[in-house]
Write a structure and sequence with these properties.
This protein is an alpha/beta fold and 433 residues long. The protein folds into three domains: 109 residues, Response regulator (Rossmann fold); 139 residues; 147 residues, Heat Shock Protein 90. The protein has ten helices and 14 strands. A five-stranded parallel β-sheet has the order 4-3-5-6-7, with helices on both faces. The protein has a five-stranded mixed β-sheet with strand order 9-11-12-14-13. Strands 1-2 form a two-stranded antiparallel ribbon. The radius of gyration is 31 Å and the shape is elongated. The two termini are 57 Å apart.
Length: 433
């Protein structure tokens, strides 16, 4: 098992892992030093507990090998003091002692040590234990860095949303002033009609912008939720490796497999940010796109929210169905429909909730249907389902513009058709383009 050198502060070079050896017997220090001499480690030494704490604070080693029976403060108290200090509490400590009784091992591990080696030790065992704890330390540092990066990106996205909201408020205020000025100049019916048409167009644009911001907020929440589980999985892998190692059940093959899976999770988290950026890139012109690819991208973005509600999503139908339009606006429409279905399934606590997507071609049109088993829509509501500001969720849970903007995107912007009907078990939305 090998260790992974960590980057120094400049990020251009690597440094050897630093190990602090603590033992009041110079002979013992010499034996440990000889055992580690061939390894790529920087070795430091201390002969009592108090100097060990001082050296740990100053040198910030990656691992501490600590004897228990020493003059002054013993190893248990030394470990306790290390764990009380913010700068040294996370440094892994391995006890190395002749005390082999179970009660001493339990006391050492309860005091914050990660491992316990009895003297006389086997060189191969010592090297293996040191290597795995250094590697766990490295994985922990990477996990912390990933978490800090996530928090930074969420903060940046939140700041962007705040700026966009302020710009929207300024835009609304400016449009209101422009509207007042136009009303003062309208002296004929023709001018008033033109102003009304322009006002409606402006309203649609603002609603579309508002809907995009709302959808962006939901997807950011979804991404935060989506990253939480992978981060938990990484932590679980690390804890499992530590547990299996202590029990002697961790093989090199199993460790390599766990490390590979952790790296796959990190790559997946990075891909999530790329997908989010592509989703909100505005289409400049009509173009041909693959309907199934767009549908699968939308499921990928909304997947964490759907999975958290135990909602199963299936995609069926032909793979080579293509349509002409704005693929990102098409995707935003589909995301609105998926979230609407999810809300109904969760609100009604449906057993075995299911959303089915079916893609087909009918005559010269592509047809994407989205079906759920949420019990359907009340007949008196269906005629108003696409009206602006119409919602059955209440003002705290919905704006009532998601489905209105979905129909606007499909029918006004792309010349398609968006309809809804009830099935035997729920509702079915159809996008024809």
């Amino acid at each position: 098992m090998s260790t992974y050198p960590r980057s120094n502060q400049s990020g251009n070079e690597t440094r050897k892992p630093v190990i602090l050896m603590v033992d009041d017997d110079p002979n013992n220090l010499s034996v440990v030093r000889d055992s580690l001499m061939e390894c790529e480690y920087t070795l430091l030494a201390a002969e009592d507990g108090e100097s060990a704490v001082e050296r740990a604070v100053y040198a910030q080693p990656d691992l501490i090998l600590l004897d228990i029976m020493m003059p002054g403060i013993d190893g248990f108290e030394t470990c306790h003091r290390l764990k009380l200090q913010e700068t040294t509490k996370d440094i892994p400590v391995i006890f190395m002692t002749a005390l082999a009784e179970t009660e001493h091992k339990v006391k050492g591990l309860a005091g914050g040590a990660v491992d316990y080696i009895t003297k006389p030790f086997q060189r191969e065992e010592l090297l293996a234990r040191i290597a795995i704890h250094l590697h766990i330390r490295e994985l922990t540092n990477r996990l912390q860095e990933a978490n800090e990066t996530l928090e930074l990106r969420v903060a940046e996205r939140t700041a962007d949303l705040a700026v966009a909201n302020r710009e929207l408020e300024e835009e609304i205020a400016g449009r209101q002033k422009a509207q007042e000025a136009l009303e003062a100049l309208n002296n004929s019916l023709e001018e008033r009609i033109a102003t009304s048409v322009a006002e409606l167009r402006q309203k649609d644009d603002l609603l579309m912008h508002q809907n995009r911001l709302a959808a962006m907020g939901e997807l950011l929440t979804s991404i935060a939720h989506q990253w939480r589980q992978p981060l938990n999985n990484i932590a679980a892998y690390i804890q499992a490796m530590q547990f299996l190692h202590k029990s002697g059940e961790l093989t090199a093959e199993e460790m390599d497999k766990d490390i590979s899976e952790v790296m796959d999770i990190l790559k997946y988290m990075s891909q999530t940010i790329d997908d989010f950026r592509k989703f909100y890139r505005k289409d400049q012109e009509l173009r041909e796109f693959d309907v199934r690819s767009v549908a699968e991208r939308c499921i990928g973005l909304t997947g964490p929210a759907l999975k958290s509600g135990n909602i199963q999503v299936t995609v069926q139908g032909d793979r080579d169905i293509r349509a002409t339009g704005y693929p990102n606006e098409y995707a935003q429409c589909l995301v609105n429909i998926l979230y609407n279905a999810m809300d109904i399934l969760l609100e009604r606590s449906v057993s075995a909730p299911l959303i089915e997507l079916h893609i087909q071609r009918q005559e010269n049109h592509s047809v994407l249907s989205v079906k759920d088993n949420g019990g359907g829509i009340a007949p008196e509501i269906i005629p108003h389902i696409f009206d602006p500001y119409f919602t059955t969720k209440g003002p705290a849970s919905g704006t009532g513009i998601g489905l209105y903007m979905a129909r606007t995107l499909i029918e006004r912007n792309m010349g398609g058709k968006l309809t809804v009907q009830n099935t035997d078990v729920g509702a079915e939305f159809r996008i024809e383009l």
